[in-house]
Amino acid sequence: MANERLREAMLKVGLSTYELAERIDVNPKTAERWVTLDRAPYPRHRHAIAALVQEREAYLWPKVVSPERATRIAESELVHVYPRRAAIPLDIWGRLIDQATEEIGILVYAGLFLPEQVPSIIRDLTTKAQAGVRVRLLLGDPKSQAVAARGAEEGIGDAMAGKVHNVLAFYNQLCGVEGIFARFHGTTLYNSIYRFDNELLVNTHAYGFPAAHAPVLHLRRLSAGELFDTYADSFDRVWSSGHPIWGPTVAA
Question: Measured between alpha carbons, how far is 235 from 107 in angstroms, rounded to an integer?
């Protein structure tokens, strides 16, 4: 059976089997077997190939990582654990936004703290979008059952829907900025997720506690890892279920 994922990744970057062999410094027949027979390269070659075709090792060769190694990789993807969101230094938010070159994503019910604690965020997101960064904002639909339930669980009732309206007063300033997209969602959030290219801040949710008092995982993607992608995929699933806040324009 051929490795269609590798074949497709090579096609996307315009790399032939012969050119791959030349770049990796192996026999062309060896490279051919990687593609046509789904032979797994040595680890050092997998690293190099993944970099060349701009894909993750775990995607190109999903069967080669043992459970034990997968656990070690997941531990390496975990940069830091904050006991509560309030423990995150404010400069972390600024650094992550500033360093993003491809994608910024915010998945919350309201997340009102962010524009309050980072007053420059509207200007920063505008600047990033103008530089070609895709910005996606996902807010809880204030009319949804999920937002009502979260408000009840935190003991603040309808105030959760009010927070969504409050944060919209900030984000509505971004309406019409090319490259910035905003959607409402009505899903149950087990985590709030903040994405900055290949780094994530995952604010866990604990029943009866506001998000500010729950732990946060700082993750950084590794090519052979799965932990980062679990949360990144979760973000995308919620995005696909949402509906535009400002109009019919949607992200590609």
Answer: 7
In the chain, count of helices (H) and strands (E)?
12, 8
Other Cβ atoms within 10 Å of 208 Cβ, number: 8
Same domain, 54 and 133: no
**Domain containing 185 — which CATH number?**
3.30.870.10
Residue 183 has, within 13 A of its CA and on its CB side, a CA count of 22
Least Cα distance to 109 among 156, 153, 163 occurs for 163
Residue with tokens 């490795």: 3
Last residue of a domain, one of 30, 45, 64: 64
Q: What domain range is 199 assigned to?
A: 74-244
Confidence category of residue 1, pLDDT binned at 50, 70, 90: confident
- How far is CA 182 from each of CA 124, 140, 159, rounded to the nearest angstrom? 16, 11, 21
Residues 112 and 142 in one domain: yes
pLDDT at 202: 97
Q: What percent of the chain has pLDDT over 70?
A: 94
Most confident residue range from 4-8, 70-74, 198-202: 198-202
| One domain, residues 13 and 87 | no
Query: How does DSSP assign 147-173, residue by residue?
Result: HHHHHHHHT-TTHHHHHHHHHHHHHGG
Q: Are 36 and 91 in a shared domain?
A: no
Number of domains in the chain: 2
